Amino acid sequence: MTVHFVGAGPGAADLLTLRAVALLNVADVCVYAGTYLDHAVLSHCPEGVQLVDTQDLDLDQIIARIVNAHAAGLEVVRLCSGDPSVYSALHEQARRLDAHGVPWDVTPGVPAYAAAAARLGAELTVPEVVQSVVLTRTQARSTAMPDGEALAGFAATGATLVLHLAITRTRALAAELAESYGADCPVAVVGNASRPTEVVLRGTLGDIADQVEAAGLRQAAVILVGKALAEDVRGGESYLYDPARDRSAKRGVQT
Fold this sequence. Notes:
The protein is of the alpha/beta class. The protein is built from 7 helices and 10 strands. A hairpin with a 7-residue loop joins strand 8 and strand 9.
């Protein structure tokens, strides 16, 4: 048996991948974080599945549940919010499973920032406006940020900035980012992206904190900052589709 780390997407059950649904369909044990999951996702599990909500468990307790289930020959799915490659604790869980000799694999999911961008109808990389996206977070009561990953350094690039796990610090962050982006820089905040309780706020670095506080957002929200978030953004044209571009090499034409 292999333990499956499965991206649960941003929350909505209909944003699960086909592979994720197939794995849930045959799960004997499903381990998930109830705080960030639309419970409709669990409807894909079979009758009689053992559901383990991790919101009150520490990492060692979670791993013990998974290892014991694996030892009993049970099919285990470990649901991860969004995509397992970003802020999922995949690394430390996989390291512990390796120590126990438990095989595992990963199924990707729709990340929260992608669901947020979709809700906004926004491309985060607009030609001739911005071509880079930085996914990051800030440090409060959490793991220390590595040296060299200061927010000011990322902001100095002018890239589209996506902040996770930072909604409770919106006011301080907006003030800090305004030094590089300007107070009139477009900002969007999407809470509970794709879920029935979804909240969408649009504004600038100068006023977004007031909106966040008025909406009472405290968790499960991403903050997107940058010129690409302007509702009237006008970029250039992608060279990929330029009619003047030579496409003979792609067709395998010899010249």
